[in-house]
Amino acid sequence: MRMRIRYSKQGLMKFIGHLDMMRYFQKACRRAGIDVTYTEGMSPHMSMSYAFPLGVGMTSDSEYVDVDINTPMTGEEIVERLNLSVPEGIRFLDACEIGITKADKGMNQVARADYTLRFREGCEWDPDWKSAFYSFLEQDEILVIKKGKKTEKEVNIRPLIYKAEVTAMEDAGDAEGDVIRLGLAAGNENNIRPELVMQAFADAAGRTFTQFMFHINRDEVYADRGSADAHEFVPLIDMCL
To answer: Cα torsion for 136, 141, 142, 144, to the nearest 10°?
Structure first.
């Protein structure tokens, strides 16, 4: 059977890269006594796949990993066992059974990711930036250069920005200031990073942008049960059987 596991990654764990997280999760499964399936061949390894690996330096409320197991277990039992020996900053939240076809894998279902961006101290823009940001979003086209490993191409990212709003920090449980909430296309076909959106705005509005001027948290990752004309985004954890 295949289980989808959701966990959060906060605090100093944001500096741990994807490959190290994979190694940690394999050790966590062994400590928890979860009977994970191994691949066949010359170099067997645990059969697991991450839906949408998180970049170094970002925190997340919803990370997903799909794991094939030999011995059936409930989602509650898996979460309880995994949480018995976790480092500070990691918390396992949910687990449920999913289908076993290629299309059921999280990496093939990802269609959108939501983010919350908060200015680092001393990196705030002038007070007029919010009105300029909403004017920027009223455009039909936002053209950017997306760089691949060997190529560069111009892309209109405006249709790939599903949500963009600015709210006060007190609404997010903080004391003061503003946060930016973005819902962006994600996955194999279209993948827009929040930094790309904010850099495009800064370039258009004549404001300074640096790579590390925001604290970025990934709030949720979604699949799309709808169509290109009528999206129906649902969290990956809701794609379970």
So the answer is: -170
Residues 6+ apart with CB under 8 A from 117: 179, 180, 181, 182, 194, 198, 214, 215, 216, 217
**Six-digit token pair at 71?**
């011995």
For tokens 């190290």, what's the residue? 20
Q: What class has domain 111-233?
A: alpha beta
- The CATH label, of 3.90.1580, 3.90.1690, 3.30.980, 3.30.70, for the domain at 2-108 is 3.30.70
The dihedral over CA atoms of 227, 55, 144, 208, expressed in degrees to the nearest 10, equals 130
Give 147-195 pLDDT, tens digit per residue: 777 788 899 999 999 999 999 875 545 445 789 999 999 998 899 999 9
Sequence ranges of the domains in the chain: 2-108, 111-233
Integer Cα distance of 179 and 116 in angstroms = 7
Q: Determine the Cα–Cα distance for residues 2 and 16; give it in Å rounded to an integer.
A: 26
CA distance to 54, 61, 90, 235, per residue, from 220 (Å): 12, 7, 16, 7
As a whole number of angstroms, the distance between CA 82 and CA 67 comes to 13
- The bridge status of strand 214-224 relative to strand 59-68 is parallel
- How far apart, in whole angstroms, are the C-alpha atoms of residue 34 and residue 39? 16
Q: Which range (102-111, 112-121, 162-171, 220-229) has the least confidence? A: 162-171
